[in-house]
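Why should sequence recovery work at all? Because a backbone constrains its sequence more than one might expect. Tight turns favour small or flexible residues, buried strands favour hydrophobic ones, and helices have their own preferences. The token representation captures these environments compactly. In the example below, the structure is given first.
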């Protein structure tokens, strides 16, 4: 199934400014039913079957290309693994998954291949959003809708749909948790172990944390930045612990680097503070369940974003929409929530968590 004819694709190349408008006004038919509208269970096969008219009901076969960075990080590995799982869930999706790469030129080549193969849609988590913008625009101009995941392009016209986590919201959620713990202790020492400081996502997380702490008159007293790796987390946490003989609350931006942070904390014999993690790994959640160490909470940064992007591409191509909304088209931008996971609600999240 193609959204646009060959003639339309040729016109888009001649008049690239018309492309986004043409894609945006596609007639996406809203779903006409829900699970509650399904026929009564007749007691037969217990295999779950999509309700008639639901978004999960099998539709026309669609071919979707997917490209993401290398799985050199637990969260990134889960991104691609969650996409692979959709192949079994949706027999009407022909998934073309490119090998993960941190080479921008190779990722550009992967997208060029998708364009030449005339896939129906491309779901792209760029290694570098700015560098991938021109090739994404080229795909859009060829009549192939692009779903941009996590790292935004420089030009909003380079994607029909953008699926984002909430980096600023992560910081806000972590800061609000600290306020709940220490809002009545104006002298509380709050520490922060950030990710890579040059990245906008790290800056957004830190700004959200700072803004939320300000609401309860707290501020970050000690801060270091690591590099999202176990080794970097351990090294920078050791420095912070030496510099801060007393800590009340510590927020670590990333649960993968948190493995090293926790190792440094154990080596230092420190247990006087409450720690909050970031991203929501399964091993962090198991620590929270065990409740025997400093880690008491983590803030989710969903590793479902790639899979969400593929599912949205499928809806777009099959002329469906999000059935729980009155809107008859797939939204332009979707930002996922950043909830705090504690021992009270960890069972809700652990099954979909990634392994660090």
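From this structural description, the recovered sequence reads:
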């Amino acid at each position: 199934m193609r959204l646009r004819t060959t003639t339309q694709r040729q016109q888009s190349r001649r008049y690239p400014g018309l492309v986004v408008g043409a894609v945006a006004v596609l007639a996406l038919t809203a779903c006409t039913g829900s699970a509650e509208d399904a026929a009564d269970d007749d007691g037969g096969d217990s295999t779950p079957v999509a309700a008639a008219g639901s978004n999960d009901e099998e539709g026309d076969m669609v071919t979707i290309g997917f490209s993401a960075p290398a799985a050199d990080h637990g969260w990134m590995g889960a991104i691609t693994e969650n996409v692979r799982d959709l192949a079994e869930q949706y027999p009407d999706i022909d998934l073309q998954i490119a090998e993960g790469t941190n080479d921008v030129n190779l990722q550009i080549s992967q997208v060029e291949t998708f364009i030449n193969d005339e896939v129906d849609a491309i779901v792209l988590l760029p290694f570098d959003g700015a560098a991938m913008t021109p090739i994404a625009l080229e795909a859009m101009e060829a009549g192939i809708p692009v779903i941009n995941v996590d790292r935004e392009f420089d030009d909003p016209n380079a994607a029909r749909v953008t699926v984002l986590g909430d980096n600023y919201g992560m910081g806000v959620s972590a800061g609000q948790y600290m306020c709940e713990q220490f809002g009545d202790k104006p002298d509380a020492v709050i520490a922060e172990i950030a990710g890579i400081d040059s990245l906008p996502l790290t800056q957004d997380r830190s700004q959200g944390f700072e803004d939320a702490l300000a609401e309860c008159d707290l501020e970050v007293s000690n801060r270091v930045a690591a590099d999202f790796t176990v080794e970097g987390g351990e090294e920078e946490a050791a420095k912070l612990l030496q510099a801060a003989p007393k800590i009340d609350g510590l927020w670590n931006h990333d649960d993968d680097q948190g493995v090293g942070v926790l190792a440094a904390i154990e080596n230092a014999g420190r247990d006087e503070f409450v720690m909050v993690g970031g991203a929501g790994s399964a091993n962090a959640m198991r620590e929270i369940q065990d409740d025997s160490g400093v880690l008491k909470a983590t803030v989710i940064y969903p590793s479902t974003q790639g899979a969400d992007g593929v599912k949205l591409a499928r809806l777009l191509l099959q002329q469906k929409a999000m059935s729980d909304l009155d809107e008859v088209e797939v939204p332009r931008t979707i930002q996922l929530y950043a909830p705090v996971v504690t021992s009270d609600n960890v069972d809700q999240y652990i099954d979909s968590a990634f392994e660090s």
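A few observations help interpret the result. The first strand starts at residue 62 and ends at 67.
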